[in-house]
Amino acid sequence: TKKIAVLGTGGTIAGTSLSATDNVAYRAAQLEVGVLLQSVPGLAECLSGHGVVTEQVADVDSKDMG
Asked: pTM score, two decimals?
């Protein structure tokens, strides 16, 4: 059986802020990979039955990755 693995590393996409234009309160690496996938409209239906596995492997701001 084939599986799709989605690894979360934190970074910009997983960041949060009070609004889309607020870069003062922005904090990187706040959302887990499962939460991010659930927030994409229609993605759950596309991936249904494909054996998706998620794992949060890091919670690092992208500027701190090496």
From this structure: 0.75
What would the two tokens of residue 46 be?
């596309």
Q: Print burial letters for 9-30: b (CB count within 10 Å at least 16), e (below 16).
A: bbbeebeeeeeeeeeeeeebbe
Q: What is the pLDDT of residues 36-62, one digit of tens each?
A: 999 999 988 888 888 889 999 999 988
In DSSP terms, 6 is beta-bridged to 54
The residue among 63, 2, 65, 11 whose CA lies nearest residue 33 is 11
Beta bridge partners of 52: 4
Distance, in Å, from the CA atom of 14 to the CA atom of 4, rounded to the nearest integer, reads 20
